Automatic annotation (TrEMBL):
InterPro entries hit by this protein: Flagellum_FlbT
A Pfam cross-reference name: FlbT
Protein name: Flagellar biosynthesis repressor FlbT
MF terms in GO: mRNA 5'-UTR binding
Keyword Repressor: yes
Keywords in alphabetical order: Bacterial flagellum biogenesis, Cell projection, Cilium, Flagellum, Repressor, RNA-binding
GO biological process terms held by the UniProt record: bacterial-type flagellum organization; mRNA catabolic process; negative regulation of bacterial-type flagellum assembly
Region (Disordered): 129-152
Coiled-coil regions listed in the entry: none
Length: 152
């Protein structure tokens, strides 16, 4: 196994095999064996899991870096949340990505699973943003009295 070197800044959080480590100063860490880990922006807090896709990510995150009992519950919750999301989405691509993410998680490839769900989160964010924006017109309609009278 090759080593992995992580550069972490003061205040960064690294979770290794379920143990959270907060860095008080800048550090360079070398992982020399296989470990379940996430760091920095990869880690989602429970409070940040405020959309369906983010809740799936949080459940899979728990299945990846939690202790044995938490991992089992996280995977079960992810199954339920994925099934629910798949039943309401209109995107075949999202359904396929979620199915792949679940298969990867069940094969204990949770890091790859999380990468897929991050893509689903980006899609969800774009859909929610589009739904929140007021509709715009491609061609504005001139107020009445303009346009037709000017050509006469």
């Amino acid at each position: 196994m090759s080593t992995l070197v992580l550069e972490l800044r003061q205040g960064d959080l690294l979770v290794v095999n379920g143990a959270p480590l907060r860095f008080r100063n800048r550090a360079r860490v070398e992982l020399t064996s296989r470990a379940r880990f996430l760091f920095g922006k990869q880690i989602m807090t429970p409070e940040a899991a405020d959309t369906p896709a983010k809740r799936i990510y949080f459940a899979l995150q728990t299945a990846y870096i939690g202790n044995e009992e938490e991992r089992e519950r996280g995977l079960e919750l992810a199954r339920d949340l994925i099934a629910e999301f798949q039943s309401i989405t209109t995107s075949a691509l999202v359904r396929e990505m979620l199915e792949s993410a679940l298969v990867l998680a069940q094969q204990d490839e949770c890091y790859q699973s999380l990468k897929l769900v991050r893509r689903v989160m980006q899609h969800e964010d774009a859909v929610l943003r589009a739904a929140a924006e007021p509709p715009t017109r491609a061609h504005p309609v001139p107020p009445s009295g303009e346009g037709a009278g000017a050509m006469a």
